[in-house]
Amino acid sequence: MADHRLTTPKSRSLVGVMNEFSYLGSVHRRADDDDLVALSVHLAQTPCSPLYRRHVSPDRELAAHVSEHR
Fold first, then answer.
1. Structural domain for 50, as ranges
2. Which of 19, 23, 43, 53 would you call most buried, defined as having the most Cβ atoms within 10 angstroms of its Cβ?
3. How many folded domains does the chain comprise?
């Protein structure tokens, strides 16, 4: 098992985004549904303020990154 270190983030905006995704995950997750892949796909479509100047949502950002590095 690898060692890991946690530090405080350089951006408070990052902490806000992580808290918002945590909240949205708990809202969108059904009590009887354990499909975390479906939940992550749904959350990837959520607009994210750090990405507003580029591709707006994590799924679009990932698609652009993959297409640029082919």
1. 13-20+35-68
2. 43
3. 1
Residue 29 included in any domain: no
Q: Where would I find the H helices in 1-70? A: 12-28, 36-44, 58-68
| Pair 20, 57: CB distance under 8 Å | no
Per-residue model confidence as pLDDT tens digits over 13-56 = 888 888 888 898 888 877 667 788 888 888 899 888 777 788 88
Token pair 């082919």: residue: 70
- CA proximity to 44, closest of 32, 20, 62: 62
CB 28 within 8 A of CB 43: yes
Nearest-angstrom CA–CA distance, 60 and 54 = 9
Tokens of 15: 């902490």
